[in-house]
Amino acid sequence: MQIYLPIAEISVDIVLLLAMGGGVGLLSGIFGVGGGFLMTPILIFVGVPPAVAVATQANNVIASSVSGVFAHWKRGNVDFLMGWILLVGGFIGSTLGVGLFSLLKSLGQIDLVINLSYVIFLGTIGLLMMLEGIKAVFRRRKAGGASRGKLHEHNWFHGLPLKMRFRKSRLYISALLPLGIGFFVGVLSAIMGVGGGFILVPAMIYMLGMPTAMVIGTSLFQIIFVAANVTFLQAAQNQTVDVVLALLLLVGSVLGAQVGTRIGAKMQGDWLRLLLGILVVMVCGKLFLDLLIEPADLYALEML
Questions:
Q1: Which range scores top for mean pLDDT: 27-31, 67-71, 178-182, 221-225?
Q2: pTM to 2 decimals?
Q3: Domain residues of the chain, as ranges?
Q4: How far, rounded to the nearest angstrom, does the alpha carbon of residue 298 sit from its chain's CA centroid?
């Protein structure tokens, strides 16, 4: 059954949208990444304008993240102190990011910037995570199932001032580090319509040194509020949030996230990173091919 999306100005099958929301919600619960890095490209693939896909998907990220956070919170896998510091940086970054989004939209370059951002960031992060995941799996097998001691190395940023003790994650690091990570992820959330988990998760593991199990719940906690801020600002400044599309995606994602959380709790961290890297690279490859293939219509008219 087809339904008309008023802001996107296209008709899409309802069952397809529900299935998309459920599938991405499932992956969100497994990997703790909000699902935006998959949903936004998929919406673009089915014909939703990139600007609308970005703004609307930010709203859908909230639902799947809330569902996932409650599940991880029950298991004691959320570091709220770390989450609040990441959130402060995320709020500042997402607010500035929406302003940049508005500027690029007025210049007519927002669609190109969105696609290029996905290709660059997804390609880089996906390849790094996939390679690291492969190495970790082989190391585990050679060690007879023993895991590594630490996933991160001490670099210059571990000597930054304003150090805090994060007892839940067993860390003693500068608050400036998660603050900066949150800011960067906030900007990406506004430009790419993602929760930023595909960058936030590896950054929390390899830069902050947090345990993988604690990272997923904490990243989803931060994503909730940053995505809410992006949704509100996008609706107020750019009028690109399609409520009908958001509601349909929301129904599927909430159910999928609950199932995904149970699956993710049973998987090893090494395999989670490897599978997430493969998914990211696949999505990036499709977007890259779409940029190279000549469109059916070289010119298009837009009613202003």
A1: 178-182
A2: 0.68
A3: 2-292
A4: 32
